[in-house]
Amino acid sequence: MSGLSRRLILASGLALAACGREPALGQPIAEPPLKSLAPFPIGTCVRAPELADPAYADLAARHFSQLTAEWEMKMEYVVQPDGSFRFDRADAIAAFARQKGMRLFGHTLLWYANEPEGFLKLDESRQSFEGAVRNYVTAMVARYRGLASGWDVVNEPVTENGEGLRESLWSRKLGQTGQFKVAFEAAKAADPAAVLFVNDYHLESRPAKLRRYMQLIEQLLREGVPLGGIGCQTHCWSELPAGSIAATLKALAGFGLPIHLSEMDVSTVQGGMLANRAEAEQRQARLYAEAVEAFAALPERQQFAFTVWGMRDRDSWLKRENAADTPLLFDDLGRPKPAFAAVADGLRRR
Ligand code: G3I
Question: Is the Cβ atom of 255 under 6 angstroms away from ligand 1?
Fold first, then answer.
């Protein structure tokens, strides 16, 4: 028995034990393509240069049916200092998705964290700020029309503590509500078929933030903003109390709109309370199982996509914060972890 298959059984055994189901000892558990187990899209984020790595590209194509550009469809990459746009890497990701028969998910149009020079130094005597934003949104959304299933139109609008909406270049120039109207209406006009999302994080761990996010959603719907879906990023950590993710998805699903669990990862080092790696990985597996089972329990019309924020631990943005973190479904060598087996088992149980 190869080292890999031994590890597969161990990994799957840990996960199944974590889910209260003893593995069938000695039975090799294959690494099934996750997308083959799910009736809804299974997504991951990717970076264009890594798609040139056959191991990375093969892992993406084998398990996932939707791709999100981790950063190369954001203003920080697309908008140049002179206000021009560069689409080379976004086009590369789109081409890979098209070639592999995968959906593309557009992330993200307006974000408080991106205030590019091209907008900060806009000569408003030649073009209004609103006109420039409409132009950018139209250029992005129209370019991937027919391939992009949806867009994060406004990303992370709620303050960390949930007391209000973030101030940003976009809210200052277009108004708190105006930024949503301008961006959503321009995106709708550019691709009427795309599902248009608002997207935020820590909703499962900060009740005040979830409440404020839900108030915003109610306001947008009341004001006729063409909001078509709700994003719940689900960046969390091993110590997150059981049930938090399921309760959050249930609350957001109350609007009746498609839900995108849009960026899941489970840090095994944040919080720092856990005794050891094995315990952290078992808790991680349980949280992934909870998330995929709660998502699969949504009405089918609300199951937009279940997306993890990267494939191999080494690919995770969290590694930059702590190199010891292991937040994803595959280890640094692309081998499935207990978290992978927990997701696969959760999909089989749906
Ligand atoms: O690859 C380039 C490198 O060539 C260059 O030398 C270096 C310095 O400029 O930049 C590198 O690109 C970085 C990129 O990540 C790839 O690693 C960008 O600077 C950096 O800004 C980018 O960070 C991304 C971050 O969003 C900001 O866009 C992270 O990868 C990405 O995981 C993170 O994702 C966000 C979601 O969009 C929204 N929700 C939270 C999530 C985590 O913060």
Answer: no
**Residue predicted with more confidence, 266 or 279:** 266
DSSP code of residue 235: E
pTM as predicted: 0.92
> How many angstroms is it from 288 CA to the middle of ligand 1?
24
Domain spans in the chain, listed from the N-terminal domain onward: 3-348
- The residue written with tokens 């700020």 in the block is 129
* The pLDDT of residue 120: 96
Please give the CATH architecture assigned to the domain spanning 3-348.
Answer: Alpha-Beta Barrel (3.20)
The alpha carbon of residue 84 and the mean position of all alpha carbons in its chain are separated, in whole angstroms, by: 27
Residue to mutate (ligand 1; options 317, 318, 325; most atoms within 8 A of CB): 317
CA of 257 to the centre of ligand 1 (A): 29
Closest ligand 1 atom to Cα of 155: 38
Least confident range from 19-23, 42-46, 130-134, 160-164: namely 19-23
Residue having the nearest C-alpha atom to atom 18 of ligand 1 = 71
| Phi/psi of residue 110, nearest 5 degrees | -110, 130
Answer whether residue 227 shows pLDDT above 60.
yes
- Report whether residue 263 contacts ligand 1, using a CB cutoff of 6 Å: yes
For the ranges 7-11, 239-243, 335-339, which has the lowest average pLDDT?
7-11
pLDDT of 141 over the 60 cut: yes
Residues 100 and 57 sit within 8 Å (Cβ to Cβ): no
Inform me whether the pLDDT recorded for 161 exceeds 90. Answer: yes
Is the torsion defined by CA of 161, 163, 167, 170 positive or negative? positive
Binding site membership of 233 for ligand 1 (Cβ less than 6 Å): yes
Mean predicted confidence (pLDDT) in 154-169: 98
The mean per-residue pLDDT over the stretch 236-256 comes to 96
Ligand 1: atom nearest CA of 47 is 16
Q: What is the 3-state secondary structure (H, E, C) of 97-125?
A: HHHCCCEEEEEEEEECCCCCHHHHCCCCC
